[in-house]
Amino acid sequence: MRRRTLLRAALTAAAAAAPLPLTGCGPRGTDARPGLDYLSLAWQKESVDANKALVAAWNAAHPHTPVRYLQGSWESVHDQLLTSFEGGSAPDVIHDEAGDLTDFAHGGYLTDLRPLLPERLNSAIPQRTWRTARIGGGLYGVPFLQEPRVLVADRRLLRRAGIRLPTVRRPWDWAEFEAAARALTRDRGGGRGRRYGVAWAMKEPVSQSVNLALSTGGRVFHRAGGRDVVRFGPRDSAVAELIHRQVHRDRTAAPSGLGMSGSDVLPGFFAGRYAMVPLNFSYRQQVHQQAPEGFDWVTLPLPAGNRGGRGAGGSGPHGGRAQGVSPQTLSIARDCRHKRAAMEFVAFLTGARQLVRLARGDWLVPTATAALAAPALHTERYGWRTGTESARHLVASPVLGVRGYQEWLDKIATPAFQEYYADGIALRELRGRLVEDGNRVLARYQR
Amino acid sequence: MPEERVRARAGLRLPRSRRAGATDASAPSAPDSASDSSGRPARTSARTSARTSARTSVPPPRTARDRRRALGLDAGAWFLLLPALLPILVLSVGPLLYGMSLAFTDAQAGRTDPTRFTGLANFADLRLDPLFWDSFRVGLVWAVSVTVLQFALALGLALLLDQNLRFRWLARTLALVPWAMPQVVVGELWRLVYHQDAGLLNTTLRGLHLLDHNAGWLTSPSLALPAVIVVGVWAGLPQTTVVLLAGLQNVPRELHESAALDGAGAWRRMRAVTWPALRPVAVAIASLDLIWNINSFGLVYVLTQGGPGGQTRLPMLFAYEEAFRYGQYGYAAAMGLVLVAAVALLLAVFLRSRLRPYEEEGGVR
Amino acid sequence: MSAPGGVRQPSVARARTAAPGTGVARPRRAVRYAQYAALLCYLAFLGLPLLWLLSTAFKPPRELGSAAPELLPAHPTLGNFAAAFDEQPLLRSGLNSLTVAGCAALLSVAVAVPASYVLARRRTLPARATSGWIVAGQLFPLVLVIVPLFMVLRQLRLVDSLGGLVAVYVVWNLPFALWMLRGYVRAVPPALEEAAAVDGCGRLRTLRSVVLPLLAPGVVATLMFSFVAAWNEFFFALVLLKSPEKQTISVLLTRFTGAEGAADLGPLAAASLLATLPSLVFFALLQRRLAGALSAGAVKG
Lengths: 447, 365, 301
What we know:
The complex is a heterotrimer.
Chain A: H1 2-17, H2 19-24, E1 36-40, H3 45-61, E2 67-71, H4 77-87, E3 93-97, H5 101-106, H6 119-124, H7 127-130, E4 134-135, E5 138-139, E6 142-146, E7 149-154, H8 155-160, H9 174-184, E8 186-187, E9 194-198, H10 205-213, E10 221-224, E11 227-230, H11 234-248, H12 266-270, E12 274-280, H13 284-290, E13 297-301, E14 323-325, E15 328-332, H14 339-349, H15 352-362, E16 365-366, H16 369-372, H17 384-389, E17 394-396, H18 405-421, H19 427-445
Helix pairs in contact in A: 3-15, 10-11, 18-19
Chain B: H1 2-9, H2 16-19, H3 46-56, H4 63-67, E1 69-70, E2 73-74, H5 75-101, H6 121-127, H7 130-162, H8 168-180, H9 183-194, H10 200-207, H11 224-249, H12 253-261, H13 266-295, H14 298-304, H15 315-325, H16 329-355
Antiparallel strand pairs in B: 1-2
Helix pairs in contact in B: 6-16, 7-11, 7-13, 8-11, 9-14, 11-13, 11-14, 12-13, 13-16, 15-16
Chain C: H1 12-17, H2 29-57, H3 61-64, H4 79-87, H5 90-121, H6 125-139, H7 146-155, H8 162-187, H9 190-198, H10 203-232, H11 235-240, H12 249-252, H13 265-300
């Protein structure tokens, strides 16, 4: 008897409660609403706070075009955007990274910003950075934060080995880097295993290998006859060969790092197992948070080119210091009904002072020249200066704007590079796969 | 008798013709009948019982309604079915059919390319795609391994929990925890456990001196798939255990007793008494597990993203990548259809061989 | 070697050694030890990863980066929980998840019970078609259906509403719910309903007062499965909900991770623990009933 009445009560409650969520959250007549939806991917606390404060400031000054702050996550943003675009309910202002924009731009979901761009914004950001968001002739995003790759090192170990610390003005070249790694590698004895000079975190090997190829004069992705093709000549493969050499011949690089992502190498770094780790600039925050008491870490620039020797880079104004980056961008959806207001909001977010705030919140480097000069970003502490000083050598990654890159990456390049670094295949086989199989895939997208 | 209890609750009288045990032949054991002394699990299907009751029952008085039937159902039945049917048609069948139909087109993400009907072109491409068949193989290995291991371990655990051991309540609670965790959490959790430098597994194994260096569980091409299978088994263990445990508890004690009195040892009892009684339940949950495991990819995605080198790229993960990362909706839908066909075939073969003696019971429908 | 018929009279000698209630001799001590050992292995397998999550939630950031991790945190802190609550609206999203999962579970049952009754009792075209859909719907990959589903919901103006999410969950839980309840309905002898009809009950009254009580265990099982499935579901919730105040907790958990696997491990572990709690409570409440519920449905289904 009790069971039946309980069941009946539950069902009645369900019937009564069901309309509540349905009515309370019904459609809001979004078509008529004058506001904007801003999808942000900020996830660290300071960054989220900075974003929210900026949105609040905008809303206070522009009550007629309020902005609603929506939060996404890096892991799922592509899926989320794709579904919202296809379904017709995309956010207006979209925070994403330049590499992700290619397919959306070709799919007709993003607004070409060239007619909307105010002059002061145009001149605030250098042309080589604008090139990162130029896809198929149009401009589809405002690059506002960029992330160089740096070398985080244990200063104490370097000093003990008597190694010169490189600066942005006087960086190492790759030969010096290899020598340093050799000097730092030693058997620690006492059953504590080997200390490696460097740990390359190669869980996602492709973007690193391609972006670093620029330092030796290679590009991997070239434009020939109006189409993108893959080439893997000596200049393109110099850095990859170096890494392979360090892991398998010289044994100065940790083989365990090959499967690790950036944050995975940190425990070994703190324990003294690795002396130097190449990391993205934003990882300094994790290093700062998790480093043990008194751990002396320093942020160094990555090596620049090869003076003489193999793949002698240093062509062009960067002298081998060039590094490919895929900045974070702000785009406007083509379905947005208030494009001018959206553009103003984007310009507001990327004003010099706001940009400094966002950069500090995310531990990244801003793109605007004025923001780069801010003294807060030039401190020695936490290696900010290394990042901002190397900003003038950051160019568009060769992978940007290439149709079919994602499929090349997943199906061909990542397995090939992983096998190569694990010494499963030789350089010739790697080249064959990347170039022959790769060009076949790319050709399909560029018919 | 249970029927009497129910009827009494409903305020109905049991007609005299019914009280004299005439229901024995037609009534399968009700779920909560503790006093059922027939000792056999139900062997009558609805069809048989309907036939039996038709022979002995009084014809229902609603003859007028019988004349007005649509598709074999009268208005009352439609009234009951409609609240389910309507949403199903709109939110499930419709999108399913549309999604499946894309397999015959060259649908792509984006507005710039119009979608054209291409017939079986996608399937032709699929036949020649080595990566798809690789992922198919990985998927089969994964699904079969996880299902078999899950079943074996769950059976063991269920047998243990059936015993009168202490801390049974703790084991039962712990058995359900993996079920309560969202997939994202399970993935992150096991990533931490498998971490090469700072993970629980390596630390424990090194502490026990079973390992002398930190193994890359998720990064080594030969270890990745087994490592991921272990996680799959861990995550699915609760559901299977609970179902099997319930099945075990439904086996009447008298059978065990009489078998023991006849001198049958534990293993003999298991084979002759427990297993036949458990078999329908076991087949049902095993096939359901197989279907669920073939479809699951969220866990693997969080752990390895299909790597290293495609060693853990499940077919569903592959289809997801085709659709969402490369925007090839048509090709992905073709993959989906091939998988449905393959699994349906597998299940048909598997179930036919298992269920032939049980056809009349309507084991899994 | 099963004996025909019912229980025989056990001899007096046997009765003294028999375990209470089973009539079977208590297993030897060695066997018992083996059983405890096996149980311990199971507990270790099932429980240790969870303990690891628990300990991670209480570790300060310094310990999280250590290369020699300990099971017990050296300096346990509640800071991760504070950070988790501070960074993301955990309470709000928890309530959202609770609402959605609860409604989905109750509606699933409310819709599935009458439908399964019809499907079990009548072997007609709609019944067979539904059975076919039950299998096909579970086999076709869900992710490929998301975009058409999204468009349908948009037509119905149910995008970005919790009600839309509930509707989707109910419909996509129905295959399992129908499968389960259909077995239970089949277990109810039609003779009962015939008798009720003879006594003048309408169809609905029969359903309510005769069939429903016998379905109670099956209803409990369906409630549990639907609740957990809806609570843990991530993909639909991610793409269907836009407004920040409507987010569910499974989507929220992904916000603790950044690009390339960078993660706020401490707050993530804390939030994950909190996300697991409601399902556990639900289980604890319904655990006992579940045991009887599932078997009969599975057998008859």
